[in-house]
Amino acid sequence: MNIVVCVKYVPDATADRKFEDDNTVDRVGVDGLLSELDEYAVEQALQFREKREGEDITVTALTVGPEKAVDAVRKALQMGADSGVHVVDDAIAGSDYLGTSLVLAKAIEKIKADTGADLVMCGMASTDASGSVVPAMLAERLGLPQVTLASVVESQGDQVRIKRDNEGSTEVIGATLPIVLSVTDQSGEARYPSFKGIMAAKKKPLETWSLTDLGLDAEQVGLSVAYTQVEDTTARPPRTAGEVVTDEDGSGATALVEFLASKKFI
Amino acid sequence: MSEVLVVIDHAEGEVKKPTYELLTIARRLGAPSAVFFGSPDQGDAVAEKVKRYGAAKVYVIDDAPIKGFLVAPKAEALQQLVEQASSNGDLAAILLPSTFENKEVAARLAIKIGSGLITDAVDVSAGSDGSAVTTQSVFAGNYTVQAKVTTGTPIITVKPNSAAPEEAEGAGAVEAFAATISDAAKGAQVVATQPRQSTGRPELTEAAIVVSGGRGTGGNFEPVEGFADSLGAAVGASRAAVDSGWMPHAFQVGQTGKTVSPQLYVANGISGAIQHRAGMQTSKTIVAVNKDPEAPIFELVDFGVVGDLHTVLPAARQQITDRSAAH
Ligand SMILES: Cc1cc2nc3c(=O)[nH]c(=O)nc-3n(C[C@H](O)[C@H](O)[C@H](O)COP(=O)(O)OP(=O)(O)OC[C@H]3O[C@@H](n4cnc5c(N)ncnc54)[C@H](O)[C@@H]3O)c2cc1C
Ligand SMILES: Nc1ncnc2c1ncn2[C@@H]1O[C@H](COP(=O)(O)O)[C@@H](O)[C@H]1O
């Protein structure tokens, strides 16, 4: 059995993220890394494999992104994934959800043709786009059920059960493999790569694919054919810091209440 | 006038406020048709409610055959509805309240009908040619982005509190829509649900006032909850408070929790990490109580108190109670 984990290379959230002149996300000028939320997906993929010791389960980390995006795959390999695939092509730049999900789906199909892929794992959202839609799009494109936002993942044979928080309840969802699964940051701390892991990662197979390798044309993806267009991006004016008072013998509460009253909240 | 589909957000026929916001927004683009996934018994009652906000039509899709199955059946039903609506006339947009479920429904629908998708809009308006232009707040609220769908029928998910609901009488004509759901769409199923106990406080994402607590509560949320109650507010929490097991995850505000955009947000014992900001930065007025004057949260506030939340909040609560007793 093969698990494909989709990992995205994103601009560091704690850095100064910005846009390019063509209103696409600056993915080169800002330091990037494996999306923290996808580390949870890698962790759950590894645990899935570890819990089912004795079975032949492999984990492939897959990313679609610019040159540097290979770092996301490398990190997944260091954490313990068995192999990696990086899809990179200038024509992909500026793709929206539909374009990105198309490339990912084609890559998954290619991996599936080689090794089988019964489980596609994703993070709950990318930390840059935060759409939480790519897993559902992959499921639609691959004709699979989707089981999303898991905080607990359990499996037996080809049955998968997850627990998740829904709007007003906690739910248990069941499905039969093959599926697309996404996990949240509630699913459990992701491991750090060990020294051994870092050394071992260097010898693991890592393939680089272009659009041609996936049987796709440049005209099918990228900014020029995106289904959506960003027309304008504006930096939010920094909030001008308001009044800050220091509490002394209850003065803070009085000032707070006066502020709230002046704004008609009480 | 072109038609705009608006998916109704409801719990057992109880229509939620974001639906009225969406109907208000939809009228900027065309004539709203509300889409009700639910029990046909409740169709008329729901129609009565949504017509007050301008729904010309109300499509009722019986959810009995698809209840408990995740996402895919709703996407199939919507695809069929979109096909019918497009063949009858011009379909300007499909609007859905931005919940996780709806975003996934929208995602599948976008692939099915080959349309562009925009998620988490905080505003939608008609551009110069009448088509939908969306506003989104991205990068933890540090950027505002204007976008539009260039291919297909725009599918847009809209966050709560994106517009003030405005009443406008619509015809509210009820139309049953019979969708055909494939077996393939029924691959993921809810096998158990445990409803969360209601706190009796307002819904976090819909509340006008949110009072949150973080690690600085030290696990004692009483001052936060008491203060919230004196303001009629919802209670929120930082991830640190959730990870410590002090509050359920449903209360988490931030990147991986809820995004809130209330009139007033009060952060107590919360440092103001970027991931927390992502969920509250667009609040109209921000107040913080924190004992560290250097806490980054103070960069955002309209008003701040450097002090211990365990003394400031109960005292403030007392004063608010005294005031309302005096009135
Ligand atoms: C991928 C990812 C996703 C994340 N998602 C979220 C998210 O959705 N939401 C979220 O909140 N965080 C999220 N985080 C975590 C975030 O980075 C911070 O760790 C978290 O917000 C810190 O919570 P805090 O402010 O309560 O705790 P701290 O940062 O520890 O701050 C506690 C504050 O309380 C103050 N304090 C202490 N005692 C008192 C007192 N008695 N009275 C008043 N003040 C006091 C301190 O001065 C301090 O400023 C995420 C992180 C990652 C990596
Ligand atoms: N370019 C990408 N490469 C690999 N995986 C991706 C990519 N974009 C999105 N994903 C996966 O889809 C999930 C949700 O992304 P999003 O819908 O953008 O929030 C992420 O957590 C990843 O697992």
From TrEMBL, chain A:
Complex and partners: Heterodimer of an alpha and a beta subunit.
Keywords on record: Electron transport, Transport
The protein's name: Electron transfer flavoprotein subunit beta
Domain of life: Bacteria
Job description of the protein: The electron transfer flavoprotein serves as a specific electron acceptor for other dehydrogenases. It transfers the electrons to the main respiratory chain via ETF-ubiquinone oxidoreductase (ETF dehydrogenase).
Protein family: Belongs to the ETF beta-subunit/FixA family.
UniProt KW Protein transport keyword: no
Keyword Electron transport carried by entry: yes
Gene3D superfamilies: HUPs
Residue ranges of domain Electron transfer flavoprotein alpha/beta-subunit N-terminal in the record: 22-218
Cofactor(s) named in the record: FAD
Protein source organism: Nocardioides furvisabuli
From TrEMBL, chain B:
CDD domains for this protein: ETF_alpha
Required cofactor names: FAD
Record key words, sorted: Electron transport, FAD, Flavoprotein, Transport
Statement: the UniProt record of this protein carries the keyword Transport: yes
Signal sequence segment: none
Xref: Gene3D superfamilies: HUPs (3.40.50.620), TPP-binding domain (3.40.50.1220)
Segments forming domain Electron transfer flavoprotein alpha/beta-subunit N-terminal: 4-190
Stored SMART domains: ETF
Function: The electron transfer flavoprotein serves as a specific electron acceptor for other dehydrogenases. It transfers the electrons to the main respiratory chain via ETF-ubiquinone oxidoreductase (ETF dehydrogenase).
Subunit: Heterodimer of an alpha and a beta subunit.
Family assignment from sequence similarity: Belongs to the ETF alpha-subunit/FixB family.
Protein name according to UniProt: Electron transfer flavoprotein subunit alpha/FixB family protein
Organism phylogeny: Bacteria, Bacillati, Actinomycetota, Actinomycetes, Propionibacteriales
